Amino acid sequence: MQTLHCRAVRLKIMELPPAEIVIVDEAHHIRARTYEETIQQYPNATIIGLTATPCRGDGRGLGNVFDVIVEAPPVAELIKLGKLVPARIFVPPAPPDLSGVETAKTGDYVIKQLEARMNTNALVGDIVEHWLRHAERRRTVIFAVDVAHSVHIMRELVKSGVKADHLDGNTPQGERDAILARLASGETEVVTNCAVLTEGFDLPDLGCIVLARPTKSLLLYLQMIGRGLRFAEGKTNCIILDHAGAANRHGRPEDKIKWTLEVDEKATNKEHEARKTDHKDPFVDCPQCGEMRLRGFGCDACGWAPAPRSQGIDHIDENLIELGKRQEAARREQEQHRHTFYLELKGYAATVRRKDGSTYSPGWAYHKFIEKFGDRPPYRWKDERGIPPSDATLRWIKSRNIAWAKANAA
């Protein structure tokens, strides 16, 4: 589209090819100036638009170009047909605090303000830690706020021993192709990006999506998570690590969206809006198998059907945890994680020597625990024997050692 518009419409150095039918891919962009000016050159042609998200970035309809929407099977049906895979969504205990972040004319957050709020060492550290804990080393794409945020996440992943690359709109095509080829082969585990892989990127073996970029746009949210829902041999689901609070705002990928052509109306997820109106937390667990389900819906995992009155609200305590865990289960899981982490620190201190040959002091594990969690380990754990550290814990220790060495050098 960009080449055609530049040469035939703007510079007029070539003639537009004649056409009775014009097919526009990624048709949600059709309100952009380049698209509109090109389409206007075909006043008598039939215009066919193809897109998974038939709306503008702010959700409004495309009725200035199209007369009718012909809907394909929705995501939920495509999952049942085996054409897409379901998502397992992990969320923070509360969405990131975006109070004071203004809304741009496009209807989404002002990027500079959003970057200042999201690109902090604490939030980036959470992304790295929870990828190590939950992503199962699957091939992953991370969506960041801007280039600086994407590079920051990539560097912290590399510090933790993860094979990660970054790309953005200025990455040369040859380098971009090489990065994506390494991701496809598994040589690279994670690619962080800013506004590059949201559409037109197809890697069915992608097993994890990390949302580090909050958005008010339903279109952008669906495009981002859609990268991970493609079916591949042996792939049963896609893990979504939602650090942006997007699932709580926009709902599940399999929700039925009400699309509209009206230019003054917006596409809506009425199912999710109803959940948010009726309950603070629209997600609950299945009482039969414990898997996450949407309030008022049956469980896809075991087939359990809800009673006329839905179950209670669950809250997720402190840790990024899979949606659907009950409050008590979440508390127990968090306590177990803290306990195991402390014993792994003790195991590391007891078996590893420093570069100068000295051993770690007995209080090393105690102080590292405080560094991570901000409070002291319970006294009852004091005399327990350490255990071998997990891969995630080893990488956390390595990242802290690197940070300490850099601070010492400075």
Helix and strand layout, with pairings?
Elements: H1 2-10, E1 21-25, H2 33-39, E2 46-50, H3 75-80, E3 87-91, H4 111-118, H5 121-134, E4 140-143, H6 147-159, E5 164-167, H7 173-185, E6 190-193, E7 208-211, H8 218-226, E8 238-242, H9 246-250, H10 270-278, E9 283-285, E10 292-294, E11 321-322, H11 327-351, H12 364-373, H13 391-409
Parallel strand pairs: 1-2, 3-8, 4-6, 4-7, 5-6, 7-8
Antiparallel strand pairs: 3-11, 9-10
Helix pairs in contact: 1-2, 5-6, 11-12
Brief characterization of the structure:
The chain is of the alpha/beta class.
Order of secondary-structure elements = HEHEHEHHEHEHEEHEHHEEEHHH
Strand fraction equals 5-15%
- C-alpha geometry: globular
Main beta sheet, described?
Answer: 7 strands, mixed
Q: Which fold name fills CATH's third level, the topology of the largest domain?
A: Rossmann fold
The radius of gyration is: 24 Å
Helix count, DSSP H or I runs of 4 or more residues: 13
In whole angstroms, the N-to-C terminal distance is 50 Å
Task: Considering the chains and any ligands shown, give keywords for the structure.
single chain, 410 residues, alpha/beta, Rossmann fold, 7-stranded mixed β-sheet, two-stranded parallel ribbon, 13 helices, globular
